[in-house]
Write a structure and sequence with these properties.
The protein has 615 residues and is α+β, with helices and mostly antiparallel strands. Helix 13 (361-376) packs parallel to helix 17 (419-425).
Length: 615
Amino acid sequence: MAWTRKILRVDLSNGTCGSEPLNMDWAFKYLGQRGLASKYLVEETDPKVDPLSPDNKMIFATGPLTATEAPTGGRWSVITKGPLTGAIACSNSGGFFGAELKNAGWDMIIFEGKSPKPVYLSIDNDNAELLDAGDLWGRSVWETEDKIRESRGNPFVRVACIGRAGENGVLFAGVINDKDRAAGRSGVGAVMGSKNLKAVVVRGTVGVKVDNPNAFKKAANAARKVLAENAVTGEGLPTYGTQVMMNIVNETGALPTRNAGDSQFDGASKISGEAMLEKRAGDGKPHTVSTKGCYGCPIVCGRVSQMDPEHFSVAGKPRYHGESGGLEYEAAWAFGAATGIDDLESLQYANMICNEHGMDPISLGSTIAAAMDLYEQGVITDRDTGGVALKFGSAEALVTIVEQTAKGEGFGKEIGQGSRRLCEKYGKPELSMSVKGQELPAYDPRGIQGMGLTYATSNRGACHLRSYTVASEVLGIPEKTDPLTTDGKAGMVKALQDATAAVDSTGTCIFTTFALTLDDIAPEVDAACEGDWSADKMVEVGERIWNLERKYNLNAGFTAADDTLPKRILKDAAKTGPASGKVNDLGKMLPEYYQLRGWTANGVPSNETLQRLAL
């Protein structure tokens, strides 16, 4: 129960689609979504495969709680080898696509090979076929979804697709569903583009059954009650969205500013969640016009925004006059504090371009920030940028480069390769704020020590969603710890990584863990699925997934030397705020982390650990 027990395998090279049974032995060890799909990827691909070659595989995966009554049960993921990093990639998305795929009767889709021409996959319950996408290639995400809906003649279909960024090989291109929900990080959209796969459209009416309906309903209702009564999931996120964090993190002294040259931004209040609710002087309307939730979500953290029609225009007509997904915290930081820009309208414009053409705003904004650093240091000039004055604080430069990157034009081609490749090309690798090639998110490890260890050890490159120590170090959840000390952070990071891997495999949203613990989530899984799914079992599953990913990366060529942070974070102290004078003390945390993980001093899982986890 809960699993559909079916996989759709799509051979793009031969144009065939076939059904096969889910490996239930693996399901009981890896649960679903992130864990189970990663197991399939590990077993079916060479870790050294070129991510953009036909030999790489890409998996769309749901979890056992996807499409059920579990709160936030709408999550799905794209799992592949990421072209931005060369590491294993799992990019998680919300919206309604995942639930529709599960309701069509599929636990996952495995894409292999490469189509000789652009195609899209059409699914209607058991029926699946590849259709010509020649008229869709070159179109934006929004145009693609509209065209597919029109051709299907069914307003209830759900679409996941790539925009021009994925087609053009932008290494941080994402897969977008429901027009503004994204499997955004690590370049999963570039893998999709390399396979000439434009979109997946699905309609599902089969439904999902759980093992014990009465127990499941009781567990799901209990979880909803906890979420509603929590200050973050019941108040903060519903009111401000993730943008609730902007002023909080800035006051903590952990908002990376101007390519992490500092850890506080004097313009933070102008681009915050509070600012998004203020009325504009021009048209008297607030930036945020409404809220938006994903399938089965009681939190409703999504924002819907509308541009000021006078702010950006082309030939006298507003560039954007409709509504689109609003700024979330990471995007507002990446286009704002990271680049030194406090013009909210410009940030929203850049964000809409990401929604429209399918790009990860974290990597895009951070790469532009690195380019601005290169420009201000005189390493690159107007000759390199095509005349764009890439100065910190320039909204005009931001908008121009974001447009160029989406289209694969001008200096945008360089930006589309990510900050590591950009900075290495110009002889300044230290100016790339990345780990394993993936750009750091919006939390400065000098001001939040645990996040430094989180970034350094993340299996998909720098990521805040693999171990959100901010919950404890800043928000005091479940208890407050000092963000400026390293004490206890190794144990915290390991515990959060294991728990997060388990939650990512259920089909529910990691945001629920602001309020829910595995003691709340395990009863949902236990009632939905066959077998024993206690909280302890969930922790074991999470640890198994983490070590599986680690082993894949080691086989791909990564070593303990890659578990590090940018030199700026380790050597250059923060200049202002509570973290003034601090660097990240990764060296104090990493050896303890390896020991707690049961790894050697070189970061390799010991034979004893592998045997204990049946790896």
